Amino acid sequence: MSPLTKEQLILDLGHDVAQTEDDFMVCAGNELAFAHVMAFPGWAAPMTLLVGAAKSGKSHLARIWAKRAGAVIASADDVEALATSGGQQPVLVEDTDRNGYEEAGLFHLLNQSMRDERPILMTARTQVGEWPYRTNDVKSRARLAAHFSLTAPDDILLSQMFVKLFADRQLSVDPKVISYLVGRMERSSEEVVALVELLDRMSLSRGRAITRAIAAEALAIRSER
Question: For residues 19 and 210, which has the higher predicted lDDT (pLDDT)?
Answer without folding.
Answer: 210
